[in-house]
Structure formats: structure tokens, C-alpha cells
Amino acid sequence: MPRWLFCVLLGATTWTLLGCGGSGSSGGTTGGNVIAGPGPNVVSVAAGGSTQNPAGIVNGSFTSVSICSPGTSTCATISGLLVDTGSTGLRVLSSVLPGGFTLPQQTDSGGNPIVECLQFGDGFTWGPVKTADMKVSGEQASSLPIQIVGDPNFTVVPASCSSAALGPNENTVALLGANGILGVGNFLQDCGAACTVSAGNPGLYFSCPASGCVVTTESLSAQVSHPVAKFATDNNGVIVELPAVAPGGAISTNGALVFGIGTQSNNMLGSATILTLDANGNFATMFKNSSFPGSFVDTGSNGLFFLTTAITGLPMCPTNTSFYCPTSVQNLTATNIGTNGHSTPITFSVANADSQLTASNPNFLLPELSAPFPTSFDWGLPFFFGRNVFVAIEGQSTPGGTGPYTAY
Amino acid sequence: MWEALLRAGVFFARCRLRLIMPLLAFALPAVAELGGNVSSIQADQEHMKGTRRVTTNAAYSVHEIQAATGTTVREFVSPSGTVFAVAWQGPATPDLQQLLGAYFGQFTQAIQTKRAGRGPVSVRQEGLVVEAGGHMRSFSGRAYLPQMMPQGVSSEAIK
After folding, report:
1. Whether the predicted interface score ipTM is above 0.90
2. Which helix (H) or strand (E) holds A129?
3. Short-list A240, A234, A182, CA closest to A36
4. Fewer CB near the last or first residue (10 Å), C or N of chain A?
5. CA-based nearest residue to A205, from B45, B92, B72, B104
6. Does the beta-carbon distance from B118 to A301 stay under 8 Å?
7. Burial class of residue A367 in the structure, from the number of CB atoms within 10 Å of its CB (0-12 exposed, 13-18 middle, 19+ buried)
8. Rg for chain B, CA atoms, rounded
9. Are the C-beta atoms of A287 and A306 separated by less than 8 Å?
10. Range list of β-strands (E), chain B
């Protein structure tokens, strides 16, 4: 039975929903897509309000993994990990690790610790790169480089990290919106080739002697990497499977994160349309007869973010000023087009965010929550409701071709 | 910069800057970008180790800098020579302290109070709009000064 202590509306442009304890129940969800049952390549995903949603964010999906000191049975189970197809790699808040649990620190050739600044669309994570064996269901990624976020041993954020940030240092559960992030996107590493050389280095990895942190190069194998790509099998991608959520929303629902594409009887592509991606991991979305490249699907975005009022005709909210607020629900259509020319039509709805983001609304899943994103479409978690979405990893072979691609 | 400062008044950040900028303006080359003088774009280009291309239409000119990181930055300059907007697209968000100049403080203050969720950032204040986001290895965004947009120029042009 749900037990939500309170929900609070904060300020004119900022809101937060605080959910506390209890187990969520599925409200008003309807079937359609088939969600995988338990299996060695399946981990359950809790979307919406539940004990897996430690910060009580709206439109979040969460799961659990174990991290172990490499080669040992000394492990910690981390719940409340945001499932994020928009990033690569496992990031865990230092504050949620059990007391006394430690992992080996990655160091450079001079023995200095390697610390990372990872930019997200709404803030950044700062913390050391450590090595862990990650176990989930029947799968294991051995000697996986991960990031520990908000480590008290590394509190000084370099200026070049904070000056490129689109939000705060996400070093607490409240600021991160989760206990950690399980990045299962299209890329093998979080940075890739750009961080292996000095010229044009975007500055994610730092060598941190006592005198202070300086940007350093980082080899591909040392970078924070896709855990699934390190599995012995089922290592070419994932499927995010969430049930449909009824118009108006629901408190919570349960789905699955399935490992591998076309490697088992429960992860076949079937009739899914494959949208291959450009070098930046994007496809194009066609809307009102215009094409908007740079579009993507992302479970880690908590709404449908697209274009601006000038194009959509959707007015902005008086209260939650960064969201759309049509006077009545608007039903819209778009088409996603891969670099391979394959396309699929999308129907989606936009509701009045001010009327949904209220203290009295118990729903943590709001499928029609929408806001601007100036030049393209960021298809966040609502896109995933009622769809099984395949995320193929770059360079990995699948029955539908080599990744990266998005398919559904 | 002078224009920006003289038009200011309502925002704390600009009020604070009004006190210190008259001293700096004469002592240093212009480095403030958004709201700054067209000559300040040179500093951006050097900072980004980039190449620059300029295109001009009747209402404004666009200085496009291709940064060494692969990110493209476009700075929009009014006929009077003021940078009234910037936009970027590419694998890394540019140095916003450099790019937003005097408005960086206002921006960072605004983004410290964020939604308890995850998604693109949107700062909408009377004197400053910043909209940005993306995902790993693909970021885009724009910042503009609504009160300094040349007449007839829509925010849709800022991309």
C-alpha cells in the first residue's frame, strides 16, 4: 500500500515531490508490450514512486546492482540507481556505500589518483574512478571502471569542471535524484577517443596529486565504461521494457532491463524498427514538416523535451515556468528517422504541467509532462511507457546490424 | 558591456558588476562575451583554440567558432557591435564562464535550485534566457539577452 508522507510545491520555478517509504502500486497501467519475466539476463526496474526512488523524482526508473571489490566476495548492493540510456557507466554516490566498503582507486603512471568530471544535461558529477566487479542478475562485469560521486577525499572541483556545468555538483541523493546512475547508453565509454589525446581533450579526466587536479589523458580501457559491454554474454546492448501508463499518470509501475539483443529467446528484435545513430548518438525527429537532427531517447530525462513555443504553439506555464502548459491536453505526432533512413511515427500527448505538478497529485509517473528543448527532441522516460526500446552499443554486433542504434 | 550595464538594475548580479566593471574595462582587454563587445569574441576563439567564420545578414552577424573539442559555438552580434546571443552544439559544453561573461554569475545562481528530476536546464529571467541540455557526448544550448535582441529578430534564430 502506498504511503506518501507529503508532496511539496516549492517556489514559482522549482518544484520537488518528496515521497517516503512504502511500496508503490501500479495505478492505471495497461498492457500492450510484453515485459520479460525473471531470467539470468533480466533485472527488474521500478518506475515512479517506490523505495527505489530515494529522492522522489517524477518520471524516474530505478534498479539495483551489486558492486564488489574485484575478485572478492566483498560486495555491496546498491539500490535506487537511475536507469539512464543517455549516459554510459556506473556512478554511485559515496554517501550510499556501506561503512568500511572500499574499492581500489585508479591511478596514473605516477601513482596519482584519477578523478572525473562528468557533465550531464542538468549538472555534473565529480569523484574518483575506482574499479569494481559489477554483478546484476546472472551477469557480471569484471574489473569495471566506475565513478564514486561526492567522495569526501576529493572535494575541490576544478574550475574547468564547474565552468562548463549546466547545473550543480550532483553529490547528494537530492541533487542527483538517485543513489547513483546506471548508464546503459549507446557508447562503450563515457568519453571515448577524445579523452585519449591532449589535442581537443574535453577535460573529463583529472590526475589529482596533493598539489591539485590537472586534466589528463585517459586510455579507453581505463575510462568509465559500459558495464553490459563487459559481460561475458548478452553484451551487445539492452532493452528497456516498461508498461504503458494511462493518461493523467500513475503512482508507479514495474518493468525490466533486459541484457543482450538477439542473444536469448527473451531479447529478440522481432518487428522493431532500427534507427541507426550519428556519431553523437542521435537521430532526427520530423515534426510539422521540419526535420530536427540531434534528437534522442533517454530514460534519464524525466519528461518529453522538445523545441519551443514558437514552433510547437504550446504556451509556457505561469508557475512551473520551464514547462509547457496547454489549456487542454494536446495530441501530437512526430516521426523519428535513423541515419539508415528507417522511420517510425510517434503519437504523444502534452498536458498542462501546472495542473499536474501539484502537491496533491500522488502520481510519480506523468506521461504527458513536457517542456522545451530548443533545437531537437529529448524523448525522456514517457517515451518508454508501453514500448520495449532496444539500445545497441557502438561497435557491437547484433542480429539487426552493428550498433549504435535505437530500436523499438 | 556598457550598454548591458546601463540597462541593468533589476538583477543582483548586474548590480554587483556595475561597481567593479568600470575599473576593469579600462585595465584589461574585453573578455566578457554575452553582452560584450564584438572584439571580445577574439578572446573566446583563443580560449577554445578554435577557428572562426563570420556571416552577416541585415539584422546581425554570426561569428561561428569551431572549438578544438569539436563543439561549434555561434555568437550573434548586433549592428551596434554587442554580442546579444550565443549558441553551441557538439560533444562538450563550452566554458560557460568564458562564453556568458558577466552573466555567468546570474546563470550559476539560477541553476543551483533545480527541479528534483533530470532533464534540460531552462533559465528564464527578464534579462537572461539560457536553455541547454543533451546527453553524454552531445550537448546543445543557447543563451540570449531578450532586451538586447535587435528589432525583428526572433529567438528562433538563436541556434
Report:
1. no
2. strand A123-136
3. A240
4. N
5. B92
6. yes
7. buried
8. 15
9. yes
10. 51-56, 61-66, 72-77, 83-90, 121-125, 128-135, 138-144
Note whether A301 contacts B119, CB cutoff 8 Å: yes
In the block, residue with C-alpha cell 533545437: A375
What's the rounded mean pLDDT across residues A251-256?
98
Q: Write the CA distances from B142 to A309, B31, B94, B102, B123, integer angstroms.
A: 15, 19, 11, 16, 10
- In the prediction, which pLDDT does A177 show? 94
Q: What's the CA gap between A322 and A167, in Å, rounded?
A: 15
Cell (9 digits) for A78: 546498491
Do B124 and A16 make contact, defined as CB atoms within 8 angstroms?
Answer: no
Dihedral-angle region of residue A234 (phi above 0 means left; psi in -120 to 50 means alpha; beta otherwise): left
With a CB-CB cutoff of 8 Å, which residues 48-67 of chain B face chain A? 49, 67
pLDDT in tens, A22-31: 333 333 334 4
- What average pLDDT does this structure show over A70-94? 98
Residue A86: all three cell numbers together: 543517455
Alpha helix segments (H runs only) across B48-142: 96-100, 104-111
Q: How confident is the model at residue A12 (pLDDT cuts 50, 70, 90)?
A: very low
CB–CB contact A301 B136 (8 Å)? no
Q: Which three cell numbers stand for residue A69?
A: 571489490
Dihedral sign for Cα A165, A168, A171, A174, please.
Answer: negative
With CA atoms as reference, the chain A residue closest to B155 would be A310
DSSP sequence for A223-287: S-B-TGGGSSSS-SEEEEEB-EE-TT-BSEEEEEEEE-SSSSTTS--TTPPEEE--TTS-EEEEE
Q: A137 phi and psi, to 5 degrees?
A: 50, -125
Residue B31, all three cell numbers: 573578455
pLDDT, greater one: B119 or B60: B60
Q: Kindly list the strands in the beta sheet with B61-66, ordered across the sheet, starting from the edge strand earlier in the chain.
A: B51-56, B61-66, B72-77, B83-90, B138-144, B128-135, B121-125
Closest CA to A190 of A297, A91, A62, A61: A91
What is the per-residue pLDDT for A2? 33
- pLDDT tens profile B91-115: 999 999 999 999 999 998 888 765 5
Write phi, then psi, for A28 (nearest 5 degrees).
70, 20
Instruction: Indicate the angle between helix axes B104-111 and B12-27, nearest 10 degrees.
Output: 150
Contacts with A17 from chain B: Cβ below 8 Å: 116
Q: Tell me whether B114 touches chain A (CB under 8 Å).
A: yes
Give the 3-state secondary structure percentages of chain B, helix then strand then coil, rounded to 5: 35, 30, 35
pLDDT digits (tens, 9 = 90+) for A210-224: 999 999 999 999 999
* Residue B105 phi, psi (nearest 5): -65, -45
Mention every residue, 6+ apart, whose C-beta is less than 8 A from residue A406: A186, A274, A275, A277, A283, A296, A297, A336, A338, A389, A390, A391, A392
pLDDT digits 0-9 by tens, A312-362: 999 999 999 889 999 999 999 999 999 999 999 999 999 999 999 998 999
Which of B98, B116, B121 is nearest residue A57 as measured by Cβ atoms? B116
Question: What is the rounded end-to-end Cα distance, in angstroms, of chain A?
Answer: 33
Cell of A72: 572478492
